[in-house]
From TrEMBL:
Native species: Aureibaculum algae
Protein name: Uncharacterized protein
Lineage: superkingdom: Bacteria
Amino acid sequence: MKKRIKNRLLIFISLIVISCSEDETNSNVPVQPDIYIAGKTKYTPTVWRDGSATYLTDGTYNAEATSITVVNNDEVYVTGFETKDIIKKATLWKNGNAIDLSTTPFTSIANAVAVVNDDVYVAGYEYESTKNTFVAKVWKNGIPTSISNGNHDAYATSIAVDNDDVYVTGHEYINYTDVATLWINGVPTRLTDGENPSKAYSVVIENNDVYVAGYEFYNGNFHAKLWKNGVMSSFTDETKPSIAYSVAVENNTVYIAGYEDTAAMLWINGEAHPLSGGHVLGNQANSVALNKNDVYVVGHTYDDDGLRNAKLWKNGEPSNVTDNTDGSYALSIDLH
């Protein structure tokens, strides 16, 4: 009898140990994020979630999805434009439902979106007939605020919000030259002296440091640049053209997506990691996102027939975003 009880006790303890071991094993399995990508399939702005496509329009008119952000319970925000009466109109799609941001009959485009504490910030630009210029704007919960004075054309391309401070990148057209600009709470800081053309495409805040990616043009070529707290640095082979379109930072490691020569490129702390071979039409990486030790990049490559194909690279390994090879491309990625 004692032996039987002892055996049952050993079996019970063994089951507990096995159960705990399984729980520990499962807890060590990394949770894979849902991958959201914004881009275009031929003529139609598209959102892909883990490879499944949702079309934002019916494709009968020109429209584009430029940026994507996912928050809360899979609420998906996408910026871009729709063409109405031949005019491009800044648009925000929330869960696929289009919201017109502009009430004027003139051209406007939404380029980036950030959502913080249920407030939705959109960066873009709009033509103002009274000033006869394009004006850089931020829409907060649909209400526009001009962040440029209208004395010259200005365009907002990216937005980040940190501790109630709003950071916007873009460029101003001053004295016939594009000048990369960072606006903080509507106050502009020009990132170059304006001697050479330059643009800023992406901004991220990490540990109170402000990182901006873009380019400066000189010696007959575009040259990818990174500005950290306003200080510009170079990190490319300056014998080849390059542009930085997106920046992400984690644990003091800086990831930049763009292109060099005709190849899609990821730079990690300034070290080049080619994502593709070259193509005469120009392969490129447009957006980078991080999840723990994994690096996700989206962009496009061209095939031998000259068709553009949307691409996702995870840790440098390429995959097709879509089976539709009829001119697709990917502009923005978010993980949730």
